[in-house]
Design a protein that fits this description.
217 residues; Glutaredoxin; Glutathione S-transferase Yfyf (Class Pi), Chain A, domain 2; 2 domains; 4 strands; 7% strand; globular; binds glutathione
Length: 217
């Protein structure tokens, strides 16, 4: 049995993990859940992840790994293929910091359940939710742009010239921005890195998959 990825095609946490699996050249079985119809809140899924969130990576020994960043780090520590984190501790701290800016400071505020809660508790309509989404991306992307732009360790990708953890997070977030109508080319360094990543098959196939599928089914 190969690893099994329980995920949703356009979830940015799933996309960042699929990017890492692609970069490592790991094949896996793809199991799809539809978030809007609550499939991840059914007992069958909650047995895998009591938090009811994708992605979940099911290992060959039947264990379930949750939390996209910890799964990616597990892949990096145990699987062959190019490293997703640098060899030096300072480099790893930098790459994790860039990744966490997206994974901890943008994503949790803009997650589907947060947008749903804004609607249920405060009556936020679709436009208000989009403004909320854009606000939290802007706050962090302004800082991320500055950090990437002024650091000589920024290369073709977030850290030097090898794509890794931070690039997986950045690429997935830019695709999410696009879905909400936010033009990421406003941040030139982030946009340049996204464009470089997009020329790699490991990333490009993720965007093509999104383009093929209607956004609001
Ligand atoms: N920190 C978690 C977040 C997982 C997460 O929030 N996944 C989203 C999809 S991007 C989800 O399952 N959302 C379901 C919901 O909001 O109801 C990770 O990185 O894996």
């Amino acid at each position: 049995m190969t690893m099994r990825l329980h995920n949703f095609f356009r979830s940015s946490t799933s996309i960042r993990l699929r990017a890492a699996l692609n970069l490592k050249g790991i094949s896996y079985e793809y199991v799809s859940y539809k978030l809007s119809s609550g499939e991840t809140r059914l007992p069958n899924f909650l047995a895998k992840n009591p938090a009811g969130l994708v992605p979940v990576l099911e290992l060959e020994n039947g264990e379930f790994l949750v939390q996209s960043l910890s799964i990616i780090e597990w892949l990096d520590e145990t699987q062959p293929g190019p490293s997703l984190l640098p060899d030096d501790a300072c480099g790893r701290a930098r790459v994790r910091a860039l990744s966490y800016m997206i994974a901890c400071e943008i994503h949790p505020l803009n997650n589907l359940r947060v947008l749903n809660r804004l609607k249920a508790q405060f009556g936020a309509d679709v436009m208000a939710q989009e403004r909320w989404f854009m606000h939290w991306v802007e706050v962090t992307f302004n800082a991320l742009e500055e950090m990437l732009n002024r650091d000589s360790q920024t290369g073709r990708y977030c850290h030097l010239d090898q794509p890794g953890l931070a690039d997986c997070c950045l690429y997935a977030q830019v695709l999410n921005n696009k879905r909400f109508g936010l033009d990421t080319s406003r941040w030139p360094t982030i946009w340049r890195i996204f464009t470089s990543l997009d020329s790699l098959p490991a990333f490009n196939e993720l965007r093509r998959c999104l383009n093929r599928t209607p956004i609001k089914p």
